[in-house]
User: Fold this.
Amino acid sequence: MKELLSPQDLTQASISKDDQYLYVNFIDNNGIDHTIKVPLGKSSSNTPFNTSIRSQTKPSIVRIDRTESGQQIEVRSNKSSQSGTKKPRKYPPDHVPFVRKLTESKVREIKALLADKHFMHEFKSEYKAHKELGSVYDVHYMTIKMIANGITWKHIK
Assistant:
């Protein structure tokens, strides 16, 4: 085990506490700031210490490391607490969350096509028209139906 902090380095270490955690902060030899987050046990002051209860609920210790770029990384030491957590999703590098597939100009085109009686008579039903428009604009047919019924994109005339 490598010693990260020696008694001579006390100027590089600090301990702080809030209602739930005890934080031990220190800087290693490489200049990287580390934080160890230890959960505080909650017990009333008048109850005696009970080892059977203590062994059933093991708190997990969370270490928060900061890389040289300043990014924070949480490392949990208790493996049993990790089994219940979900893995984060891995998205492609060009993924942008919450981006609309339709723009206002595309919605105007869709509304114009839905209002055009000659275009709508080419299809056997509204469902078929919505399916076709959905595939052309790369959206679900229910999106087209909701535009047609005025549920979404109400502000576009």
Observations:
- Residues 104-148 form one domain.
- Helices lie at 51-56, 79-82, 104-115, 117-120, 126-136, 141-148.
